[in-house]
Specification:
The chain is mainly alpha-helical and 163 residues long. 45% of the residues lie in helices and 7% in strands. It has 2 domains: 9-42, no CATH class; 49-160, no CATH class. The protein is built from 8 helices and 2 strands; from the N terminus they run αααααααββα.
Length: 163
């Protein structure tokens, strides 16, 4: 592995705070703009707080999923994040409204979202014994705890979804 031409994270943050763009920082150190952006992404500099709050209540370890980027960008997962954000009292972005409506349609048709290690997020038929009133299929190897309440489904909630 080649040593990085970029300085420490602290130095990068100082340059950005001074008003330098990623392209300007890249030129200063003889690297691509993409290399600078990648470093900021690794620092989670631009990770939205509400996204992190939602991710922290999920019963799945997304970091270990083989296609975590594809998973996070899927409509099913976007709908789940919007559902959870709404349940936690947050706002649903206009960009997520369609995914939330689609998410509700699946719930109302008797499906729950599950995370498959190979197929990713997918809809499966609700099993009343196993799924109870949850909107997701809770993993067998994860204990249900206070987070579980965020994933409870009530058909009346669907009336509050965006039109």
């Amino acid at each position: 592995m080649r040593p990085s031409k970029l300085p420490s994270d602290a130095e990068l943050l100082k340059r950005e705070a001074a008003g330098l763009s990623h392209a300007e920082i890249a030129a200063e150190f003889g690297v691509t703009r993409q290399a600078v952006t990648k470093r900021f992404n690794l620092m989670e500099k631009y990770a939205r707080q509400e996204y992190r709050e939602v991710t922290n209540v999920l019963p799945w370890d997304l970091a270990q999923h083989s296609d975590k980027d594809g998973l996070k960008n899927s409509e099913a997962f976007t709908g789940l994040r919007a559902y959870v954000r709404q349940r936690m009292g947050g706002e649903v972005s206009p960009r997520s409204e369609l995914a939330l409506r689609t998410f509700w349609n699946h719930l109302e048709s008797g499906e729950v979202l599950t995370l498959d290690p190979v197929q990713g997020a997918r809809w499966v038929r609700r099993d009343p014994e196993r799924d109870d009133d949850l909107v997701i299929r809770w993993p067998d190897d994860v204990d249900q705890d206070e987070r579980t309440d965020v994933f409870r489904f009530s058909p009346a909630q669907g009336e509050a979804t965006p039109e």
